[in-house]
Amino acid sequence: MNHHLPRSSAHMLMLGFLFTCITMMWFSFSVPTFQVNSLSFPVTAPCANKTPTRQKKSSFSKSEHCVPKVNIMFLKTHKAASSTVLNIILRYGEKNGLKFALPNGQNDFSYPDTFRRVYVKDYKPGACFNVICNHMRFNAPEVEALLPSDTFFFTILRDPALVFESSFHYYKRVIPLTWRIHGEDKLMDFLNEPQLHFDSNGFNSFYLKNIHFFDLGFDNTLEPEDPLVDRAIRAIAERFQFVMIAEHFEESLILLKDALCWQMDDLLFFNMNTRRPTSVSQLTPELRAKAREWNGVDWKLYRYFNATLWAKVNAYGRKRMEQEVQKLRQKNSKMAALCISGGMAVEDQNIRDLSMRPWQPVGESSILGYNMKSNIEQPFRDICRKMLTPEIQYLTDLGVETWAESGQEKQILTRSPVLCSTRATPADRQSCFLLQN
Predict the structure, then answer these.
(1) Model pLDDT for residues 116-158, shown as the tens digit of each residue
(2) Where are any strands of DSSP class E within 35-105?
(3) Are 160 and 220 in contact (CB under 8 A)?
(4) pTM of the prediction?
(5) Which of 76, 308, 348, 380 is the most buried (most CB within 10 A)?
(6) What's the burial of 319, exposed, middle or buried (CB within 10 Å: 0-12/13-18/19+)?
(7) pLDDT digits (tens, 9 = 90+) for 249-296
(8) Do the Cβ atoms of 133 and 72 come closer than 8 Å?
(9) Is there a contact between 118 and 208 (Cβ–Cβ < 8 Å)?
(10) How far apart are CA 238 and CA 219, in angstroms?
(11) Which residues contact 4 (CB under 8 A, 6 or more apart)?
(12) Strands 72-75 and 242-245
C-alpha cells in the first residue's frame, strides 16, 4: 500500500509549514518582548572591578568615614517624582565627570521593551559605565553587565492611587482603551468597572495597571495574593539597596545622601515635570480605595517599601532627620530665590525661553516649567540653569538626539507596530488611524 501523500498535498503542507514559520518570526520581531514572572535578579556583571578613566579624574572630598559612591543605577519609575531625582543625578554625574549610559535617540531605553544593552547610545561589547538613570523596563542581568560590581541600585515608588490618577490623565491620548469610555469623568467610570474597560493585551494597557511592578520587569496582571508577587518583592529588596517613597521625598533624599556619602548641596532640587493643579483629579476616599484595589500589586509593593523606609528613618533618628530635612528645605528656598523668576513654576505658554519648555503630553500643555532670573551672578548661572532644565533638553545637552515634540504620535506608533498591523483588531486599527491623522 502506498502511504505517501499525493505530490500536490505534500507541496501544500510544505508551503503551509514555511508560511507558519515566517509568520511566527515576523510576530516575534514586531511585538515587544516582556520579562514576565522573572523572580530573581542574578548577578552577572562582566565589567566588575573596572573603573572608567573619567571616574579617576573626579574631585570628591573624602570624609573620615566614607567615600562618595559614583557608580549608580536609578530605576526611573513612572509618575513618582522620578524626573526630579533624574535632574539631581544628571547634575551630580556631569559635575564629577562620570560616564553615563544614555538612551539612543529618545529619553528612555526603548520602553516598554525589556531593557537590553544594545539600547545604550554608542554601546560596544565590554563597555562599562558609572551611571544609568533613564526610563526602562528593568532587566537585571543586562543592566548589571554595564556597571561595576559595587554599583548602588535604587528606585522610587509612590502611592499607586496617585500614580494611577496621573498616568490615566497623562497618557490618555495614547491608550485606546480609555477612548471608548464616554462618560464625563472617564477616570471615575473606569474605576467603577475596571474589568469592563481593561484588556491586558490592549495597546499601552500597562499604563493602567500596576505600572511600577511593570517598570521593575514583572507581570503587572498578577493578583496581590499570588505567591509570585511576594517572591518578586523579595527579589526587588535584595537587588535594590534603597527604595525612595515620593510622599516622603525629603526624608528619602536625606537617607540617600547618607547611603551615597554625598553632600547636602548635591541633593538640592526644584520639582520637575509637575502638572497644573486644575489638571489633577481630586480622588474621593472611595475612588482612592478603588484605585489601590485595582493596582493591588503596586499597593502591596508600596506598603512593603514604605515600611522599610520608616525603619531606616527610625534607625537614622527621628530628631536628626527633622533637622536634616529643615536644612535641605532652607537651602532649596535660597536656591529658588536665587534662580527662579517669580519664585514658582508657571504655565507652559508663560515660559519666556522656548528652550526651557518641558515636554507635554500628546495634545495638552499641562506640565509646568520655570523662568530663570536674568540677573543671576555669573558663578550661579550655570547651576541655576541646570536645576531648571527639563529632562529632554538636559539629555540633548549630554549628546542624546531626542525625538522632537512634533513627532510624539509617530514615535508612539513606531514603538508598537502591532497597533497598525494587519493582525490588529478593528478597534486598534481605528486607533492607529486616529493617531496617524
Answers:
(1) 999 999 999 999 999 999 999 999 999 999 999 999 999 999 9
(2) 72-75
(3) no
(4) 0.82
(5) 76
(6) exposed
(7) 999 999 999 999 999 999 999 999 999 998 999 999 999 999 999 999
(8) yes
(9) no
(10) 18
(11) 10
(12) unpaired
